[in-house]
Amino acid sequence: MKVHWLLERDMFDESYRSCFDVPNNKRMKHEIERQGMDWKEVVYEPLSYDEIGFEGAFDPVDDCVIGWGSLSMMMKVRQQRRWSVWCDPDSFKCSTYYAYLGHLLLNTPYIMVPVSGLRWMKSWIFETLGEDGCVFIRPDTGMKSFTGQIVTEENWDRDMELVTWYDKSPEQLVLVSAPRVISEEWRVVVSLERGPITGSRYKKDGELDVSVEWRIPEVIGIALEVATVCKQFMQDPMFVVDVAATQARFNLTSRKFHLLEINSFSCSGLYACEMEPIIAEAARLAKQEFETYHGA
After folding, report:
1. pLDDT in tens, 280-296
2. What residue numbers bound the domain in which 188 lies?
3. Upper half-sphere CA count for residue 265 (Cβ side, 13 Å)
C-alpha cells in the first residue's frame, strides 16, 4: 500500500540555518520521496466553505493519506475525509490532559474559569496566583484561540482585549496560573505505541534557538511518561510533547524539567527534528488506521 501526504503550502517553511541549509517543508518532502511515498501541496483559503482544493489529488476512500498543515485546514480535512489527520480537539484540551499529568506540569498551581469570570475574579487571581503583578493565561482548547501570555494587573484591560480578540464567547474556558521563567524548551515527536521518536530544542532564554540536541534524560523521561499515560485518553496515534526547563538565577545545578503542553502532530512545526523516523512512523500508523477502517 502506498502512503500519500497532503501538505499545506507555505506552512512550516522555516529554514534553521544553524542546523540545515533548506527549509523544513523541503526536508519533509525529500524524506517522503526517499521513502517511496508522494505528496500533494495545496493552498488553503480559511474563508472558503468549499473543498480545500485537493479534488482529484487523492481518492477520498481508496487512498491512504496523511495530513500536515494549519489547524484550520486540518480540521476542515477531518470533516471532509477519513484520512490520517491527527488533531483530535478533545485530546489537546488542558482540561483533558491536565487531569492525567498534573504531577509533570509547568503551569501549576492553576485554576480554570470561563473567560467572563476573569473580570470579577481579578483581585482574587492576582492575590492567589500573581507574582510581581503578573499571571499566565492560556486557552483550555488546543485550537489556539489565543496564544498563552503573561497578563499584568497594571495593563489588565489592554491584555484582556488580546485574550478575547478571536473568541469573544463568555463561556470560553481559560487556564490561569502563576508565571514561570523558562530557560529552554524542546519539542519531542511521540508515537502512542512506541514512545519518543525524535526531538529538537526550539527556544533558549525566551528566544528562538533551534538545535538538534534533545537527548537529555529528563526530556526523554517526561516524553516517555506522557506517552504511557496518554494511552488512557489520547485519540491520535502520534502527537508532540513540549518540555520546558526552569532554572534559578545563578544556579546552574537547579534546572528542573516540566511538561509545557501537548500538541497535535498534523498541525505542529518540527524545528530540527529528524525527518526519517517521523515519516516512517507516520506511514506505519496511517497504514494501520487505513486497514482498520477498511477491514483489511
Report:
1. 999 999 999 999 987 75
2. 182-264
3. 29
